[in-house]
Amino acid sequence: MNLNKFSKENITIAFYTIYILLAGICYELFPGDAKTPNIGVLLFYVLIPISLIYFMVHLTKQLYGGKGYVKCLVIHGVVWVSILVILSSFIK
Predict the structure, then answer these.
(1) What residue spans of 1-92 are helical by DSSP H?
(2) Contacts of 51 (CB under 8 A, 6+ apart)
(3) Which among 41, 40, 46, 48 has a CA at the least distance from the CA of 81?
C-alpha cells in the first residue's frame, strides 16, 4: 500500500477514527463489570501514550523537517480533548 497518495492530515484522522471505532466496538462487544474495566476503556487509556508518541513524531518533523505539520498537531489536540471528554463520562 502506497501511503504517499494520502495527505498526512488524512492519515492522522484515519488513524484516530479507526482506533476510536475499534475501541467503541470492543466496548460494546466485551462487557466488563464494576471491578474489571472493559477492553474498550482500556484501549482508550492505551491510546493516550500512543497518541503522545505520534504527536512527538509530528512535532519533531515540524521542528526539524521541511514540511509543515501544524494541522496534524491541531488534530492531535482536538482528539485529546475528545478522549478526555469520553473518559470523563465513564467516571460518572
Answers:
(1) 8-29, 39-64, 70-91
(2) 16, 76, 79, 80, 83
(3) 48
Q: How confident is the model at residue 88 (pLDDT cuts 50, 70, 90)?
A: confident
The cell numbers describing 50, all together, are 500512543
Lowest mean pLDDT segment, chosen from 24-28, 32-36, 67-71, 72-76: 32-36
> Residue 66 pLDDT > 70, yes or no?
yes
Decide: helix, strand or coil at residue 7: coil
Residues 46, 4 contacting (CB under 8 angstroms):
no
Amino acid identity, position 51: S
